[in-house]
Each structure stands twice: as structure tokens, then as C-alpha cells.
Amino acid sequence: MDRGKKRSRGRRRGFVQTLYEVVNDVSTDSTISWSESGKSFVVWNESEFIRDFLPRYFLRPDLEAFIVRLLTYGFTKVVVEESSSSSERWEYAHPCFLRGKPELTAANSFVVTSSPELLRMRMRELQKQRILAIKRIQERRRHQPVVAHI
């Protein structure tokens, strides 16, 4: 019984603290970094994040599993203005995940959401947001002038 509690607590603590270390590492800023305010983190290059960071730092190299973990620990998606959004860029925030405050990443600061229905609902909302973002990008590309390279 103690073994299960210890393992569960260690995983939760490990995920959030690992994420903090990756976000806080200035050498990763072109892929993942703090937002300008320091109150959220931004993945600037989704494909690079999936290819280089998920397998190296997290248990499952699967973006959907990573996002479910974020939602499980209470992170929320930050809605980005349409003009600055891109399919490669996404942003998440948590009140205890702040630049310069690693002590807030203690396991007891991140309450695990255990409701499967809540997680399904959040995943559906994320999928809708992603589809809308892709449609906006496709629409912009249709209206951009074609430049001929000679």
C-alpha cells in the first residue's frame, strides 16, 4: 500500500518538476519556453517538441498523453489571439507553475483531476480548438498571393 502511494506521488511530482526544468532551460527556448509574462509556458514548435522532448523527458512520447497529463494536473489552455496563433504553437498555464518559483511545483500544489468525464470533455474542447486553428491557417494560406521563384 505504501508502495503504491509512493509511486503515484513520485510520478506526479516528477512530471510537473520535469516540465518546469524543461521550460526553464534557456537552451530549449526555440521549442518550449516561458511566456512573456512568466505565468504560462509555450510550445513554439510542436513537431520538434514531439520528436525531441517527449521521448527524452516524459514517460510516453505521445502528444495526446502529454496533454491529458497537463489537464489531469489542472493546467488550462491559454487562448491565443488569432493573429499570433499557429498550428505549431500552443500555451498552457497553472496558478502554481510560474517562472522563478520552482518551489511551487511541489506535488501538493497540483491536485490530480480524477474525473474521466472531465478529461474527455477537455480533450474534446482541445480537439475543437485545434481544428479551428488549422482551418484558420488553411484559410489564410488560400488568400496569400502566390510568389513565383525564378
Automatic annotation (TrEMBL):
Q: Which residues form the HSF-type DNA-binding domain?
A: 11-111
Q: Which family does the record assign?
A: Belongs to the HSF family.
Subcellular location as annotated: Nucleus
Q: Which domain of life is it from?
A: Eukaryota
The record's gene field reads: LOC104756193
Name this polypeptide is given: Heat stress transcription factor B-2a-like
Q: Does the keyword DNA-binding apply?
A: yes
**Keywords from the named record:** DNA-binding, Nucleus, Stress response
